[in-house]
Amino acid sequence: MKKYMELSKRENQLLGVVILEFEGTGCEESKGKVESILRQNAKEGDVIIYISQNTYALVLYKYGVFFAGHFRRKVVDSLEKNNIPCNLYIGFARYIPEKNISAEALVYEATAEMEKDKEFKKKMNIE
Question: Highest taxon of the source (predicted)?
Answer without folding.
Answer: Bacteria
